[in-house]
Request: fold
Amino acid sequence: MAISNLPDFRGGIDIRDVADGAIVSGRVDAEEAILVRRGEEFFAVGAQCTHYHGALAAGLAVGDTIRCPLHHACFSLRTGEALRAPALDPIACWRVERAGTKVFVRERLATPKPPAPKDGKAGALPSSVTIIGGGAAGLAAADRLRREGYSGPIMLISADSSPPYDRPNLSKDFLMGTAPAEWMPLRTPEYFAERKIELLLDSRVASLDLKQRTVRLERGRQVDFDALLLATGADPVRLDIPVAGGTRLFYLRTFADSQAIAAAAAAAKRVVVVGASFIGLEVAASLRQRGIEVHVVGPERIPFEHVLGAQLGALVREVHESHGVIFHLGTSVANVEGRRVTLKDASSIEADFIVIGAGVRPTIKLAEQAGLEIDRGVQVNEYLETSVAGVFAAGDIARWPDPYSGARIRVEHWVVAERQGQIAALNMLGRRQRFDAVPFFWSQHYDVTINYVGHAETWDAIDVDGSLSSRDCAVTYRRGGRILAVASISRDLKSLEAERDFELTQTGATDG
Ligand SMILES: Cc1cc2nc3c(=O)[nH]c(=O)nc-3n(C[C@H](O)[C@H](O)[C@H](O)COP(=O)(O)OP(=O)(O)OC[C@H]3O[C@@H](n4cnc5c(N)ncnc54)[C@H](O)[C@@H]3O)c2cc1C
Ligand code: FES
Reply:
């Protein structure tokens, strides 16, 4: 709808037309906005999420927050602040005035600046913060520290040669060729300069000395720290495939990897993807959309069966097959000779190149060598602090006590990594905030996006509500009658409601 056709909130809205919890689309002058009712309170905020422009009118109001339907960013209705990733920037927020049965939207409010955190016994501030890892968790932590008014030195050290970028996009629009390289950085060089976040790129940390509180870089430089965040992410599992001849093998983790695959794709006709993983199949989808013939080879019988169950896994396969992907499941690659990829079932495929998506392993060598407690990841407590005080871990490497499943879990989700970075930052400032966000991830295959909230490693029952074949469903995973997770397609609101319901069971609170 053209913006001029939307109701102008300046002219007033009759509150009798707005039910409790309702979200009304409209505008404030020429800016798209939403009006939200929570009990007797009304809020007016910007209509678009600052992550990927999700329409907040289709989101969910929870308490005095609004959640984005696409990837569950959470904004304050009172201030417009981005409270939880993946959005890092605020939305517009206006003052609302009630007169009789009408509410009027008045002047725009400035995003409040938090008071500078105070040094004190209970929350002693670190004299400096060093963050190892310039990915999701690392950037979100640095960003949050400055947003909270922390003014001490922050150093963000990254082995990557690119400044922090939108990693999930590497297998999606960027690889498809529909997102230009300029869209990939999460922040501009000016952002880092203005906030005095010292960004060391192409700088791999070789070792940590937790007693001396120093970090040594591979190139020899030594950096002192007071508080430390380890956010080193994960590395692709390397397969030991015998290769003779010139066919190129690619792994996908970094921007440079995705650029290399995109460059090779420009001249390719047929590609083999090894591994029917999330990354493997997203790559398959992106390459199909470039018109390349794609063969997917994997040992499993049904893609994602152990994560999403057989029904949803079969649907994912069907979606890919309907776009022309050729699956070779229940087998693996025996060897590669020149362009010929021979499988263990003795069949072979001629390919221009191979992409391997065989999962990842958390990058924990540094933490291990430094003597931190390790359990298939870096052990952290509910405050994301490791076994050494003042040393935190977040993102793909962190195994934390998840209050929903009651288990210590480690996941590889973008939003979780960012939210952990944000909470670790608060705890470096002495806030003692538990990490209790409900795990969430999304995965995109052509026009089908799967949203997943919760965490279910095993289950004893799966219910499908809706229709898998129409790609409109919510799949609930239960164990002992308890809901552990909900995966959904085309049911964004259901996914947000599931997140809210998990939160309510945790706090025992009621939404209101
Ligand atoms: C192609 C792709 C697509 C994805 N799509 C999705 C998706 O759709 N949805 C979703 O939820 N998740 C997705 N993920 C997963 C998500 O990106 C990760 O869970 C997330 O990036 C983890 O964040 P992190 O901060 O822990 O690690 P990362 O973002 O990987 O960052 C780790 C950083 O640590 C640096 N580093 C490592 N070792 C050192 C060292 N010794 N010294 C200095 N620096 C070091 C690395 O260079 C990097 O900068 C995807 C991942 C990939 C690779
Ligand atoms: S578009 Fe709103 S969270 Fe991604």
In short: Residues 492-507 form the longest helix (16 residues). Residues 508-512 have pLDDT under 50 and may be disordered. The chain is about 20% helix and 30% strand.
